[in-house]
């Protein structure tokens, strides 16, 4: 069995009081940018705070949220000191960490990188019984920056195309992913048009939001300071374009994933726009209207950090990306870096052509790589997900011989990646 080490065993007398004095004196607005021993502890404190409060921002007028923010900063600084002592004593050649985010896991990864210790990060993605692995950082970030050569040279044969099509089709009603927001989706176009009061004579542009507290954890801002500015700017633009209808699809995970957000986007929109422009519709988080039907009705789609951009691109609809998401900079989306560039795209949005064959092919290649090569099938794994904050791993195998080299190709990929630093993706079809 492997020895277990508790961080409390690496505590030093007086360190909590010393670090709390630092955390308690910092102005709240300065916490996120704060570094301790060259580690971005403020960023980890922020990510954990919004995860705890289920909001996208820290309310500086709320004493409880400020207290949580400071406590998370304290925890991250303690983690820096204690994990440094762990590494000094154990002197590992490699570190394997889960998730790579928040106070504990994110700080762990940053300390390893700061000291030049190889670190591997893993987590459970969307497809059932699969794992993601990445070197040096969370897969949320590595998917954006990794080499395109891993997938650009893929040649999809008929079997691979069918495998991808079957999987993507399953996402409409669910069944092959951990999460299914719409077990009984409203897919009939006529029903969607009637329920939303859409004018069938006018073109439609659909905006897909994301859960703000989750996205802000690992997404950098590009064109806008946050998702709210993006949403408000878009509504204000289309208010002056009555020839186009804007449909805002609120992410269903705000209410349908076991942990309702405490800062839903729709109330903020309605507070900012007590009377919505006549050509703007909101599809609430509770609605069972199929996002895929909305995509197929759209002349273009607007996203910030949602994962749907890949599936939209495959369906041939032009996608404008205003924030960070793994489909960015892959050659099948329109990626913006500034607010003005975004507005310029909106001005000509009806002139954007349907994605051509080359763009759709790129999207399909990346989708196959993403879903079937980067998501590593683990037949030995049975992950039970109760909600976004709690999951349990179960491993089932008859004997330790099942773990030997050559018994499972994906397990070999994982072990080789950890031991030898090779990429974590399947090379065979």
Give the secondary structure arrangement, pairings included.
Blueprint: H1 15-25, H2 28-31, H3 41-53, H4 63-90, E1 94-98, H5 102-115, E2 118-123, E3 130-135, H6 139-145, H7 149-152, H8 158-173, H9 189-196, E4 204-208, H10 212-218, H11 227-239, E5 245-249, H12 253-256, H13 265-272, E6 280-283, H14 291-297, E7 300-303, H15 309-314, E8 319-321, E9 334-335, H16 339-347, H17 357-374, E10 376-377, E11 381-387, E12 390-395, H18 409-420
Parallel strand pairs: 1-2, 4-5, 4-7, 5-6, 7-8, 8-9
Antiparallel strand pairs: 2-3, 3-10, 11-12
Helix pairs in contact: 1-4, 3-4, 3-5, 3-10, 4-5
Explain this structure to me?
By secondary structure, the chain is of the alpha/beta class. The chain is 44% helix and 13% strand. The chain is built from 18 helices and twelve strands. A six-stranded parallel beta sheet has the order 6-5-4-7-8-9, sandwiched between helices. Strands 1-2-3-10 form a four-stranded mixed beta sheet, with helices on both faces. A two-stranded antiparallel ribbon has the order 11-12. Helix 1 packs across helix 4 (63-90), helix 3 (41-53) packs across helix 4 and helix 3 (41-53) runs antiparallel to helix 5 (102-115). The relative contact order is 0.11.
């Amino acid at each position: 069995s492997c020895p277990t080490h508790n961080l409390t065993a690496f505590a030093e007398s007086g360190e909590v009081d010393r670090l709390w004095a630092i955390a308690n004196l910092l102005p709240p607005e300065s916490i996120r940018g704060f570094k301790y021993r060259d580690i971005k502890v403020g960023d980890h404190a922020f990510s954990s705070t919004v995860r705890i409060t289920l909001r996208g921002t820290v309310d500086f007028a709320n004493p409880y949220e400020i207290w949580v923010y400071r406590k998370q900063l304290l925890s991250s600084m303690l983690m820096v000191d204690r994990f440094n002592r762990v590494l000094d004593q154990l002197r590992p050649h490699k570190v394997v960490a889960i998730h790579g985010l928040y106070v504990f896991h994110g700080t762990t990864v940053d300390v390893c990188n700061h000291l030049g210790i190889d670190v591997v990060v893993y987590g459970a993605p969307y497809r059932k019984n699969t794992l993601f692995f990445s070197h040096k950082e969370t897969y949320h970030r590595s998917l954006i920056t990794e080499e395109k050569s891993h997938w650009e040279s893929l040649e999809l044969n008929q079997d691979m195309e069918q495998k991808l099509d079957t999987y993507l089709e399953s996402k409409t009603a669910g069944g092959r992913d951990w999460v299914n927001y719409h077990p009984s989706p409203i897919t009939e176009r006529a029903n969607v048009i009637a329920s939303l009061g859409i004018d069938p004579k006018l073109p439609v542009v659909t905006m897909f939001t994301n859960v703000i507290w989750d996205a802000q954890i690992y997404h950098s801002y590009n064109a806008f300071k946050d998702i709210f500015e993006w949403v408000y700017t878009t509504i204000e633009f289309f208010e002056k374009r009555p020839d186009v209808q804007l449909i805002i699809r609120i992410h269903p995970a705000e209410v349908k994933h076991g942990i309702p957000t405490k800062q839903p986007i729709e109330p903020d929109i309605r507070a900012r726009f007590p009377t919505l422009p006549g050509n703007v519709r909101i599809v609430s988080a509770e609605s069972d209207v199929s996002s895929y039907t909305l995509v197929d009705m759209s002349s273009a789609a607007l996203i910030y950090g949602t994962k749907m951009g890949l599936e939209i691109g495959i369906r041939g609809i032009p996608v404008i990306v205003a924030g960070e998401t793994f489909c960015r900079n892959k050659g099948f989306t329109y990626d913006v870096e500034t607010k003005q560039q975004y507005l310029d795209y909106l001005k000509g949005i009806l002139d954007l052509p349907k994605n051509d064959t080359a763009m759709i092919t790129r999207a399909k290649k990346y989708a196959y790589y993403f879903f079937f090569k980067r998501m590593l099938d683990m037949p030995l794994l049975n992950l039970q997900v109760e909600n976004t904050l709690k999951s349990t791993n179960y491993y089932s195998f008859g004997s330790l011989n099942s773990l030997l080299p050559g018994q499972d190709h994906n397990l070999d990929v994982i072990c080789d990646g950890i031991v030898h630093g090779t990429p974590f993706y399947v090379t065979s079809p």
